[in-house]
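Pilot study result, target chain (1012 residues):
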Amino acid sequence: VAVDFGSDSYLSSHLALGKAQSPLRARFPLGRTAQAQAAMLTSQGEGSTDTAALRKSTGGYGMFTLKLDKLDGKFGIAYRAEKDGLVITGIIQGSAADLHNQLADADRALCVGDRILAVNDQQVNPSALTVEEANCKALVAEMMSANLQTATFKLLQFGPRWHVEGVTSDCLDKMQVYEEQGLSLELVTPDALALLDDAMVKESDFKKLSMNQMLLILLMVALPNAVFVALWSDMGLGFALFNALAPSMMNMAGNGIIFMAMCVLVGMYLVDWQKWESKVQRVATAVIVIYACAIGGIVKARFYPQAPLVITLFHLPIAIGMLRATALKMVRRASFYRGIGLGCFITAIAILLAWLAWMFVDAWDGNNVYNDATKANLVEKSSVLYNEFTVEINDRLRSIDYQWDCQDKKVTDFDIEFGMTIDNGYSLTAEEKKARSKACSSVKTIWFLLWIAPFISVMTNLVIAAFCAINGTMSEVDDTSKAEKALKQFILMVGVLLLCMWVAASVAGASMRLTGTLMAFCGAALVCLFIWMYFEVGAKLIHSTLRTSKIMTTLVAVVTNDWFRACFIIGFNMMIPTMFVIELIKQKVRRLRNTTQSKSWLTPEAQTALDFLWNWQWAGIFVKVNWLVILYWTLSIGVAKVTFIFLAWLNEEFEKNVEFGLVLVLFFMIGWTMFMLPPVPGIPVYITSGIIIAAQARSIDSIGYGGGILIATALSFVLKLVAVCGQYSIGYFLGKSVKIQQCVGVDKVPIRAVEQILKRRGLGLGKVAVLVGGPDWPTSVLCGILRLNLFQCVWGTVPVILVSSPCVLAGAFMASPSSSLSEADKSMWDALANTALAVSAGGQLASGVLAMYFIQDVIGKHGEDLAKPRPEHEKVKQLTIAEQDYQNCYAETMDWRSLPKFWFGLITVSTATMLLSLFIFMFMDEACFRAFQVKDRISDPEGLDCPSGDFGCAMVRIIKDDPPLGWFALFLFFTACTLHFIFLKYAGRRARLALKAKQDSGELAAPAATQA
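Predicted structure:
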């Protein structure tokens, strides 16, 4: 082909290379021709391989050395012998060399045309005039040696540094053939190529949506929604299907289906499913396994009623993705997103109108407004569900009776005589009441989900419509790259979904257990979001963005940090060795199938992962794991439970005829003292103010329940502002210590970014987000350490009333307007309390997300200026320099390879014990501790059952002793802590001895500080 374009044009050329192989795909701006490059290389090949001369003549090419491990007995390099070495003619796809290129930097990648000058000790003769004299046979023999698994290659960067996709064993020759026919190429780096992928796509090649395509979108969007409403709502077959899935044996059947699907999935992985030649077989088996898991989840609807809803609606983004990959592949991006958004919006409106008609229009069963009559109808339709859900009371298993157990919530049991429920006089225990309440809530969740299912469909479609509308608008903005825009949207959406999950967790404990439903939908949305990110941007563009985007650079730095690795160990601890066991079996299967000649116990992929993990600083990571678990225990177990018990005890003490004014004064003083303690959060204090003050005020005619809420709201608000002043003062005096400044990181970019935000006057959104969304004690103390303006800090904290007020309301709702409410009324007020807490939690997390956004935005815009040295931080810098020698010695001490086996074993046992205790605390909390909230009384016979005012008894009784799992978990935790601190003591002493030895030997001239 002959090409003649302007210098700013781009061309995509597809050159067929070999039979049934992937085509070579070259993308390039026109400019310097490949003929000129080839001629330059040819002239360089005639003579000495002097590195300096070659580097000068080739504009930067030179020699480099790399080490390769064979994969399936091969390096995967195609070559031919010439007088100046082995010329690389191709890299086999999926080979060891190809894997190296995927991970290596561009300047260390193997490229077609490069010369292999040496393999281990075998070298090319630089003065050879013929191929025979070049010693190429010795290099080939060394590479093909059966005893050789790893080889060190010395190469000369001689080839044009182009990027090639596919198997290209003879690509160099074919490139020359096409060049002789007039093709001109400008050769680009892999990074530039990834960006060219986006830039080379001409907008003129894509079309706007046609009317037929818009109708196709409406059909594909409406289909999964119609199936959803027809199968899983009260408007359709919802009750019939759920009643059929209600028997307990269906749950066992679901477990069996999922187990079999997982076995098949593991089997597919063991036999290299991804390498099967038939694409039809790969897709068919994957679809069968996926839908088997989906069917298993649907069959388990008894315990996971959200599963059928999520699985069915998940087909909506699948349908959208199929449209984009097939029929709408050549539609403009903005037009596609707008079309999808419009289709989802129209579908949402149609379902909403149908749902409203179903509720209000008499001609279509118009008696379904959510009222007492509708609830009675839903309960009647759920009779099979109530019969299938059982509870054990007085050593007998019986079904749930809605009227007795769920509506009236009677405290005694019943017998059925002549078709009637008769009180048998047995009083239910606290555990039996909880089990009954859980069963009632489970059934209520099912029939409420069936009633509200159409609205769930409406909201899902509206969320997708909004997402597509944002994407359609941002697609036309040219200020940033496609990857950067997608990345910002991705991070924002992840933050929103995490916010929704936090709100879902805060709703836990309401009468209808909707937490699982909200979590499931958010989890499905996260999966869709990750898939969208991958296919929207593409793997190569993501890889290139890793090197060019500041956001991605920051994220990469975070995920490669030892603290993140510690979090990884906490989350996937037992899954890591399990995966290596599976890889070991997979390698054994490969040997039995004769698909590998490797003698390694692990697959190459697992060996690469093992090599990667081998280089982690495991001793330091284990120490960080322990610190994270200690932090979790301190905040979630220690401080949380002590705070709840103390505040409940305080509430009970205030009920002993204490004057209302004295209650306000004492609570203010105690609340302020608690705010001064670093681990104590503010939310329990706000909630307790609502409980205590509202309960005290409801018996005072001149104030009343509503007046008590207003007083509690005002008191909590003032208390927070006064606490900010106290915490600021703590930071102000702590900030006089250079060591404290160093620990806080006042000279680091993130803290300087926070400082820049907080120095702004007024109520800027970023400033308010940091002060309100940040943790109470650390944020205000940091303001004091940074010597910020106290009035401006207090003024910026004023919007905290939007977070504290819902907490006060939640506490007041827990107290309720009267102490003699029925069980049904108490349930309503508890639901209102959980809703208020959810609102508060949502506001708190939204502030936190905004704070992180503004901090990252400041770092991105002013990072270089923030990183510059400042005179006021010179002492911190000098202290850091003075301690650097000790820190280096400490890092060497923590290298697990040099640690004595006993001490590495000690920290390993400590971390394993710590993780075991964490597992028990997190997943068996109900078996370890008695349920207790701020509103409860420590003297309640069905609760802690302690004498009134006996705080010590409450601290002991909160831990269950039958079985003593809580005491066992605490024993594990404190044992692990003891081993942890013993190891830290040893590591510090060993580091100081190493430092002293280096100073005594003269290796370190100046003495260094020895503070860890």
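One observation from the pilot: Residues 8 and 245 are 64 Å apart (CA to CA). A full batch analysis is planned for the follow-on phase.
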